[in-house]
Amino acid sequence: MNKQDNMENMIFSGCDTVELAKKYGTPLYVVSEDIIRERCMKIKDVFLNKYPNTMAAYASKAFLTMAMCKIIENEGLNLDVVSGGELYTAIKAGFPMGRIIFHGNNKSWDELLLAVEHNVGRIIVDNLYELEMLEEITSRQNKDINILFRVAPGIGGNTHDYISTGQKDSKFGIPLDPSVIKDIVNRTINSNNIRLLGFHFHLGSQLFENQIYVNAIEIITKLMNYLKEELDFKTLELNVGGGFGIGYTDKDTPKPIEYFTDIIMETVKLQCDKYKMPIPTIIIEPGRWIIAEAGITLYTIGVIKEIPGIRTYASIDGGLPDNPRPALYQAEYDAVVANKINQKADKVVTIAGKCCETGDILIWDLKTPDLEPGDILAVLNTGAYNFSMASNYNRLPRPAVVLVSNGSSEIIVERQTYDDLLRGEKIPSYLRG
Ligand SMILES: Cc1ncc(COP(=O)(O)O)c(C=O)c1O
Fold first, then answer.
1. Is-same-fold flag (11-30+292-422; 33-290)?
2. pTM of the entire structure?
């Protein structure tokens, strides 16, 4: 997004954000189709078209709606899902099932069954228990399925503990013990319905350094070579996950995506040459990198409370339920006052949410112009892990999502109503009357 310097209101994807707030109400998630498509195009330019035998899957946990499925389908990317609900969304949107990659550390029987029934392209098997279930399901359904094993390479990402996933002490993936992996690979080689294509790892999210991918690829290719020598197993696919960081504030140091993808491809080639193995198909799974900067959230400023000599709080009409990331892992955001985009930001205020939690602070010490109730705050880069992580805490209805493109706007998720909050609730008969 750009802070404009020649207009009164902030413009996002050709739309006046103050007009959007008026038309659709606040809080409001605004998602730019133009930016999503630019990001997909960039992935095609610097990765898919540059290197043969590559695939990119959008990690839909970052943000998923049926409209998003359509955009991703249209851009030719694959879709990574991690639950029956995400898979169901893709099914209902008509997303091609062969392009689905199904993740999860504790997939249920029903979720696996849904995936097998719909012939998803790949299941990333996380553990032996899951493999056994999948063997049973595919045999009962008389269906074949492609799988990759998720391996925990034993290295964590330099990021918040809650979003570091590749370390040994992790709930995700099979720990990197070659003899354990050899047994499980051997089992699939002899399986009737399961076809093992290769391996997957995901190191963490919001990563800024590429060295960790180099380290992980060195570890995994060593394992691939071991399996080749021990079992004559040929790894056809290697999925290196997502995690490419973006700039939320000027403290972050984001890199272009090719900073990651070039070194990934270079390292794979070096390692495969070293072990005299053919280069497998390489898959990446960016989530945040595609969607984070495509989203902003609009709020209306309400109460402004000045505590002389201490701080000024400006409260917004949303907060923790629509963006839990600051409370969850101290994530930081930047914001602008959308209706005062050209005014000098020479005041310092703390943006508080409206929940009954002292920790419901969206942004500490934000520089703003003079604020008044009714001003529209635009929190930037909220496209990833906001809408998808939202809750109804304090019984706040979830905001609408509006898709904007080249000056036009359309609702893709309606704002929840109070009746939506009550949906499915029942009062037991003995409590009625
Ligand atoms: C398996 C897997 N792939 C991809 C991603 C996407 O990560 P990011 O949004 O940081 O790119 C995640 C995020 O947790 C993940 O668990």
1. no
2. 0.95
